[in-house]
Structure formats: C-alpha cells, structure tokens
User: Fold these one by one.
Assistant:
Number 1:
Amino acid sequence: MTGSETSPTFRLAYVPGVTPAKWVRTWNERLPDVPLTLVQAPAADAPGTLRDGAADAGILRLPVDRTFFSAIPLYTETTVVVVPKDHLLTAVEEVSVEDLAEEVVLHPLDDVLGWDQPPGEPAFERPATTEDAVELVAAGVGLLLVPQSLARLHHRRDLTYRPVVGAPQSGVALTWPEEATTDLVEEFIGIVRGRTVNSTRGRTRAQTADRAKDGQGTGARGKPATARGGRATGQKEGSGASRTAKSARAGKGGKGGKGTKGGGRQGGARRRS
C-alpha cells in the first residue's frame, strides 16, 4: 500500500448516470485548498482509469475486481424499461420481465445490467451504446432496459419509462485501488459516509490539506498511534485517581471497620518510633 500524495488535487472518476455533485460540494467546503477534478469515464473503461492512475477514486458500477479494488456500496438503482409515450406498457405503473416476452428488447454493447439472457426478442443487431439504443426506441425499433439514472440522462420528450420487476439491478460503489488508499481517499470516504469534519475516523481538514500541499501522506490504515494511546492513558490515569481517593477515605477511618483497622496500624507504628 502506498500512502504518498503525488498531487495537491483529488481526481474522482464517475460513470454516466452518476451525480457526484453533493459530495463535490462538501469536499469544496471542507478542503477549499485541495481542488477536486471530475473525470468522466464510460462504465466499461472506468476500472482501467483507476488502474492506470488517471483518477484517485471513482464512483463506479458494480461488480469490480475486489482483488485489486476496495469498494463501498452506495446504492442500488431501479431498473426501468424505456418506451415510446404511446406504448401500451405506459398504461401500467410497473412492468414484469414476462410482460416483455413478445417485445423487441435492445441490448447495447455498453449494457450495465449484466443479463445472462435479456428478455424479449433480440434486435437484428446490438446498438453500440445506450444513447444509440435510446434513439432506436424513439424510432419504434424496440424497447430498452437500463438503470433509472441512464433513462433520465438520455431523456427525450417522446419517451417515458416504467420500473421493471424481476430484472437485474445496477449497484453503484465508491471504488479505489486498495494499494493506493491515501489521506485524500480517506477524506472522500468520510464525506460519502456522512462523517463530520471532526470525526475521529477521518483526518482533520487542515492536516489533509497541508499534507496534500507538501506531497506527504499516510496510508488509509496508518492512523496516528497517539490517538489510541492517549485514550488508553486517560483511562489508566482515571482509574488510578479513583483508587487514590478510596485509599484516602480509608486512611481517615471515616466509615466502617476497614478505616478503624487502618488507623490502628498507623498508631502502632508511631509508638514503636
């Protein structure tokens, strides 16, 4: 695992349909001196973007290679079928996979649902991209199943969509190379998990910004030992103080037989001297 920062910027890859805006805003508020650069990548190419070091982390579609990447699942999208607005399927609130059995269903080459066998009748050829498939739906060639965010991304006034029950779904995750878990990656993990600025599991804004400027950093798991040590020391000191207070009360002999017995032993020692 490497923990060095090679640039005072943080590069975040993201795939079509993903909207990282809310996390970017939080980043800019917490680390105004560390610019966040967005790197858009097709879903199929996004893992390679991270492997090649063109981005520090990414919001990608699952699955990813867990022998190389660390991933924190963020959410799972609803799968929808994109249809013309005058299609019969618009009469219902949701569609089952069985309802598509007699429909021509387009299966673009950049499909992200990972079908073993797409439903319906296959088209004469597979469209190159989801965007091309949407154009074919508008032309009345067939229907298209995609995550809801992609249906929104490629929205057209003459098309609509309905949720599909029983279809595969697309999961989205924050992903990064496990061996490149830097301070800035840890900072972004804290943001997507909703940690506060002063969370003990994250590094402070000033520390992260300063390390990024200086080209320094520690690995994700290289948290300062003093934090744990400080807590342990505080517990020992507190228990020691408690024992001292109890001894002091016992020495005064204020209550109980133990106090009287202690006072007798002290008196005997004075007589011997």
Note: The mean pLDDT is 81.
Number 2:
Amino acid sequence: MKRAATVALTALAPISWGSTYAVATELLPPDRPLFTGVMRALPAGLLLTALARTLPKGVWWWKSAVLGILNIGAFFPLLFLSAYRLPGGVAAVLGAAGPLFVVGLAALLLGERASLRTVLAAVVGAFGVSMVVLTAEAKLDLVGVIAGVVSSASMGAGTVMTKRWGRPEGVGPLAMTGWQLTAGGLFIIPVAALVEGAPPALDGRAFLGYGYMMLINTGIAYWLWFRGIGQLTATSVTLLGPLSPLTAAVIGWAALGQALSPVQLVGMAIAFGATVAGQLAVAGRKPQPFSSTERIDRNISMDLTDEQVRR
C-alpha cells in the first residue's frame, strides 16, 4: 500500500507536465519557450531553496549543477527546439522513448536489471503514445529529431544520476529540488538572452500562467518526481512518463475542444495499460536507498579503481 501511494503521488508530476501545452498556448506570450523555461525553473528553485533553508556544501555544489543541467537546463531548451522543429506528435513520441534510456542507464549504473516485461512496457507505452499524437502529415527534421533524442537522454541521465548520487546526509527532496531548479534556470538564462533577446512584456494572463507553471507545474511537480526517485527504482519512476502526453491529449479534448479519434482512444488505453503493467513488473524490486555523502564518494572511488567498472 505504501508503494502504491508513492507511485500515485509521483505520477502527479508527469500528469502536471501534461498541462504545459495548454497553459503555454492559452496564457503565455508566444514564441518565448526559453524565457518560459527560466520562469518555470528559477523562481521555483529559489523559493524551494529558501523554504528548505539549506544550501549545497562541498561536492554538492557541482553535483547539483550537473543534475540541474541534465534535468532542467539542457532538457528544457532541447525539448523546446524539438517541439519547434518537429510536429508536436513526433516530439511527444521521442519524449515517450525516454524510459528506454533510463532502463539502459539504470542497468549500467545502478544495477537495476531490466526484465523483458519492463522493456516491453516501455516500448508498448511509446507505441500507445504514438497512436495518440502522430498524424499522417507528420514530417521529420534531422535537427529536431536529434534535439528530441538528446533531450530524452538528458532527462533519463538526470533521473539515473539523481538516484546514483542520492542526497547529502540530512538533506531532503525539497532542498535537492530547489538546488537543481535553480542551477537549471541559471543555465538557461544566457541561452534565452542570446536566442530570444529581452524579456517580453507581461499581462495579467501571463502572470497567472507563469504562477501556475512555477508553483504547480514545476516546483511541486519536480519535488514529487525527485521524491519518487528516492523511494522507488529509477525504472519505476520513468515508466510513469507516458502519463504526460496522455494528460495533454485529455486536456486538449476537455478544455480546448480538440477531438479524439477511435485510434487515439485505443492508443490512450494501450499507453495507460503499459504504464500500469510497467509498475507491476517492477513492484517486487526494492530500490536502493539514498546513501550518505561519504558512502557515495567511497563507492565512486571504488568504481574509478575497479578494472571492471561499468561505463
């Protein structure tokens, strides 16, 4: 029962991310995805860090920066580049392939052996998402495809490394989330300034949209996500990813008047079924708890001197 509750809470993160498209198109300034990325990450990161009243110490300054870049700073711009260069459906499918990266990296770096059922759940989930979002007019763009693949790999690597490095002794997920969002937001600022120029003028609708994105869509959602990584296996967490495009499709139908075809409904059922099956496939595995800083550093030192280290 405790695991089911943890999975349900963690699932709220990708469900929340599924509202990003609707909020961005209805409330936010157009053609400013990088500025939106900054507004999502940096204020939320500073707020959570202030609430946690804890700053990184020692090696956790650079570790937080690396995790923040992987999970936020590199992920957001690459995701937006993919979305601009590709039809939304193609970009969503590339994002839905993210669990496959995590399955492979978790086996390599965390020793989470991937069962056939787990791999099938990830593949079938991506297939179901493709039925929901792909259209016959979808065209591929090489730069967009590369950006989409690398963005999924970046988020996947961030998920696995968050699990591998754990947290410093006595530091909770609130502080870790704040550190990463702050680092990621700071990383995006120069990219946004170079590509998009000065910030746009904001009206009341934009403030409402950014407030939701900062507090709910990013601050709370990423806290739940990183909390879930600490209590579940990395594979279990990432298999919840298809809930994001499924939520986006439901919101598009319910709030934006977008129709859902029978093929899309079947795809939604397949993707949701694969998500549930993936959780059942990994339900019996016990996640490795977060270690203290000293233990992690000792493990890394052993890895570097072991001739059989897995790279």
Note: The chain has 15 helices and no strands.
Number 3:
Amino acid sequence: MIKVDGHVHTPFCPHGSTDSFEMYVERAISLGYTAITFTEHAPLPEGFSDTTPDQDSGMDLTRLTDYFDALDMLKEKYKDKIIIRSGLEVDYIEGFEHETKEFLATYGARMDDSILSVHFLQHEGKWDCLDFSPDVFHSMIGYYGSVDAIYSRYYETVLKSIRADLGEFKPKRIGHTTLVKKFQQLYPASHSFSDEMSIILREVADRDLELDYNGAGFVKPYCGESYPPLEIVKKARALGIKTVYGSDAHTSNGLDQGRADMDL
C-alpha cells in the first residue's frame, strides 16, 4: 500500500518543536509510510513584515541552504526505507508575487515537492495571520465587519494564489484551502461558500494542480474537520483533482493526525 504524507514540518520551523528529522522519519516508518515530504514554512517575501508577535511564521533565509543540505543527507541515510522529498510551504501574499517568484527561481530547483498556502490577509492596508489565534480572528471581525467578510476575502485570496504567475517553480499543491474555518465553532459563517469553493476547484482542475488534504483541522479545538472537508474533496476528485494527505505535523507525534477520520 502506498501511504504518503505530503505536508510535514521540521526542526527548522521557528514556531514548531525541536524534534529531530530522524524522529519524524522513524515515526513515519513505524506508521507504514512509504514517502513523506518535508514542507517547512518558506522565508516570507522580502519587504513583507510578519504580523505575528514573535515574527516566526517563516524560516530565516540564512537557514535555507542548511535545511536543504540536511534533507539531502536524510535522503541518503534512509534511501532503503522510505522516500523523502525536499519541499517548502510557500506563503502566497498578495502584492508580493514578484518577490515570491524571484525566491522560487532561486531555490526551486532544490525542491522535489511544495505547497502554496494562504495564511495572511490584507484589509485596508492592515495584514493579519488569520489562523494565528481566536483573539486575532475576533479582532478581524471588528474591522472586516463580519465573519462572512473574512471568509470572502480568504477565498478570494486563495483564488488569486492559484491564478498567480509565480514562475516555473510555482508549487503544484494548494494548501489547506479551508483554513479560514479553523475557528468555525467559535465564529461560524452564515453559509457554506460553496460557490466560491466551486470556482476554486475549477481553477485547480484547469491548471492541473493538486489539493492538500490536511488532517490538522481535526485536532484544532474549534474546527473539527479536515481542510478541506470530505464533501469538497469528493467534488475535487470528481473533477480529476489529485488530493494528497498532509498531517501538517509540527511535532513527530503529529504525524498521521486526523487520518483515521478521512476518506483516503
């Protein structure tokens, strides 16, 4: 059986754990995985200011070569036991497409696989990391005007990420497309936004991209479902879109999270 995790973080994550690469790999092997992709948060684009308190959303650019070098050694060490792929989770930040394209042109050749995700939204010049905390999301409601307005802005930005020209090394997989629902049990939207998701799925299909089928939402206390949920995954598959399970683990124990609750 082919068992893959396409979204795994590492000790290079500035807001993750210090669990070693070997701890992740050994646990993946013990769980029966045949391949994993390490997708550490890429450095944020030059000129963008991280809004999180510790400014730790992305890896420091000075550590990037060490990251790829460490993965090269890991691939060799475990070549007879598991396939290890080098990757990044790249933030799409509206207005910084040129900087992101330049970054990918410089480092893309070192990636076997990658993810393009939206974490940051802009509203009238103010940026927020929408999944940082319930408090941040609640504050966003105040100046967006409603939960629905945040959802609309999020899906609009995801669509822009799919359509963006980021060059030949643009990630082929779109990350956790319903991340905006992380706090849905506290701050529910008034409707499903199915029309917006249908447009997103059509764009993903037309561009032959993949979807990150992310289990982390199951372990978030105010979410309770995968990103995206199964009904959206079924629609994606009907359109011929490949979905790739991702644990989005930030600790070695986080591998396999949510998988038992997902239709794979």
Note: The longest strand covers residues 83-91.
